[in-house]
Amino acid sequence: MAKIFVEAYGCSASFSDSEMISGLILNGGHTLVDNSSESDLNIVVTCSVKDATANKMIHRIKSLKTKPLVVAGCLPKAEKSTVEKFSENASMLGPNSLGKTLQVIDSTLKGTKKIALENSDLSKVGLPKVRLNPVVGIVEIASGCMSECTFCQTKLSKGDLSSYRIGDIVRQVQTEINDGCKEVWLTSTDNGCYGFDINTDLPTLIDTVADIPHEFKIRVGMMNPMYMARIKNSLIKSFENDKVFKFLHIPVQSGSDKVLNDMKRGHTVETFRDIVKKAREGFPKFTISTDIIVGFPSETNEDLERTKELLKETRPDVVNLSKYSARPGTEASEWEQIDALEVKKRSKEIFDVINQIALKNNQKWIGWKGKVLFDEKTDEGIKGRNFAYKPIRVDDKVKMGQTKNVEIIDVTLHSLVGKIISKS
After folding, report:
1. What is the CATH class of 3-116?
2. Does domain 136-363 have CATH number 1.10.3720.10?
């Protein structure tokens, strides 16, 4: 039996995969260790969504390959040759191949490289897991997506949409709650198209999960605007349940319809505007998170201005800003690219707009009083979230999983600052 070190990068689905890999490791009789210096074998669950992330993955592969190594997640599936270039002896495990985890580990420990990138018939729902955060249960509701974005490598890694059955998901959520989780994340490559392949949809799933008779919070994960037109009214209705965080992550990517068309996003700027409007009409305080890509090959300065205008108009609370990077195997990687210095300049312009909006949005929360669930350990201490999933830090001592009444007394660009006003 071996001592195994597991680390993960990327999206919540990637971290969920690492939790399940860790659970399978323990079930297989192996031991988990906290750092690679103590291990007999290392596993890194990778992300390959953009160049900066892929470069970080390469650095980790090179530093971990001094011992038997398994490279899991999206990078080996999308760029098998890249993994082999930097660690020719590493075994590989795809994001939909978790059923082969123990076989890959056992083979690697014996000195035989094993590649398991094909989809296994093992559903990710119901697998044993070792949680990274004892308060948060990450529940994958589907794998793959229905989109064909010209910039995105994730489709190459995870393939077409495969939704998990609502009953199976509900049983997994129930397990998370029984194990002490106070918060459940419903996550997938694209939550917006959940269920379209099995004759159901996301609002139906949210409503069913919210009916579980326990006190807990639900965070609904990222959904592309493309499919939200079909579900937006029932989705907003689902958010009326107090268990559901008033939070939507809807990546618009650009404020230009021309660029969105070139990206094959399948939505228009108006689609995004409409969703934001409906959410804010339905709830006086609602957190909107979005993604912006700057420097897409066909983006002009005029397109950039349209993105700025859209941000100023819709005023999202959180913007994940990325400089476009040409990912191998994607359609847009074959196009003529914009000069890197120009992309950097455009990114700085959008970054400044984002910060102005973020600070003003946060300042509107000063004086707010209400319940906060403390759910995250950070370098600054334990951070909490209120009903709108706004990050809140306090100087008072709190424990993970506690709920306290808090008053917001100050803000920063990225969080609210509060004080505890009762012992609840």
Report:
1. alpha beta
2. no
